[in-house]
Amino acid sequence: MQKIIKEIKYYNCGYCTNNLKLVFKKHKKEIKKFPAGVFLMEHPKEGYILFDTGYSTDIYNIGWKGKLYNLFNPTYVKKEDQINIQLEKDNIKCSEIKYLILSHLHPDHIGCVKYFKNAKIIVSEEAFNTYKKNKTKYLIFDKLLPDWFEQRLTIINDNELKENKNKYFTYFDLFKDKSILLTKVNGHAKGQICCLIENKLFLGADSSWGNSFVGKAENFRIFPRLIQSNMNDYITNDKLLKKMQNDGIILCFSHDTYDKEVIQL
Ligand SMILES: [Zn+2]
Q1: Measured between alpha carbons, how far is 125 from 176 in angstroms, rounded to an integer?
Q2: 1 CA to middle of ligand 1, Å?
Q3: C-alpha to C-alpha distances, 63 to 59, 132, 264, nearest whole angstrom
Q4: How many structural domains compose the chain?
Q5: Spacing, Cα 229 to ligand 1 middle (Å)
Q6: Distance 227 CA to ligand 1 centre (A)
Q7: CA distances from 236 to 68, 188, 231, 232 (A)
Q8: Domain contains 29
Q9: 98: domain range?
Q10: Lower Cβ count inside 10 Å, N or C end of the chain?
């Protein structure tokens, strides 16, 4: 069948480092870079769609919350790493992005939201409620967000996310043409939205740290367990990811590394 979305472009927009010895039981010391990934798609009728926005250098200028974040999660980002600059290099203006899907509102996903004032910003209702009521506890730093943020939001509620069902999950069909299916994957952050593109590629955000980590969540040490919003959900969904991986669905996570910048569907 003809694909509506033909390819996905991956951008690496800053990174943080973590020692895998602190993440997994029985793992040797290994400092690993975790890039903040952003994914770009183009829909022939709807235009450009961006999934998350990566880091911005603002993370160094938002006061004590940013400093604390940096202490536990050493972060490296330069101006030229920012998605707004990288899109410009590809001759895409930020104003041409028509939809911005935010998987969740952690700093490595919302850093550059402020450059996309023309976009409809899509978040789940659960993520939005967490943002309204319980920001700091759930690592949402509103100083990273522009003051017009709420005006541009399209909030997808739980009923919409349950409108349809496939063999893996219930979903919301964003453009009613099966090209982008939105689903909620809890565990890492409340109301995290992931996307199945053309039934072939899954944008998994932070539902796992990467393809080589899928199916291993039960080996997590206490530190990574503490930073998930619900570890039981995380492990349940880790098993679902394993199933999708075994079925040949391409899994793309925000902090994975990819050999190709453009993934054909
Ligand atoms: Zn996160």
Answers
A1: 20
A2: 34
A3: 9, 20, 41
A4: 1
A5: 10
A6: 9
A7: 30, 11, 9, 6
A8: yes
A9: 7-264
A10: N
Distance CA 215, CA 246 (A): 11
Q: What's the CA gap between 167 and 205, in Å, rounded?
A: 20
Q: How many CB atoms lie within 10 A of CB 170?
A: 15
Closest by alpha carbon to 94, among 81, 84, 102? 84
The tens place of each residue's pLDDT in the chain, 265 residues long, gives 789 999 999 999 999 998 888 888 888 898 989 999 999 999 999 999 999 999 999 999 999 989 999 988 899 999 999 999 999 999 999 999 999 999 999 999 999 999 999 999 999 999 999 999 877 767 788 899 999 999 999 999 999 999 999 999 999 999 999 999 999 999 999 999 999 999 999 999 999 999 999 998 888 888 788 888 899 999 999 999 999 999 999 999 999 999 889 999 9
Tokens 């793992």 correspond to what residue?
27
Q: Is residue 1 part of a domain?
A: no
Give, in order, the Cα–Cα distances in Å from 204 to each of 30, 65, 136, 237: 24, 26, 24, 10
Q: How many CB atoms are located within 10 Å of the residue 165 CB?
A: 10
Let me know if residue 127 belongs to a domain.
yes
Q: Could you tell me the sign of the dihedral formed by the alpha carbons of 149, 39, 8, 161, in that order? A: negative
CA of 206 to the centre of ligand 1 (A): 6
pLDDT of residue 222: 83
* CA 119 – ligand 1 centroid, Å: 22
CATH code assigned at 19: 3.60.15.10
Contact 165, 153 (CB under 8 A): no
- Quote the ligand 1 centre to 45 CA distance (angstroms): 31
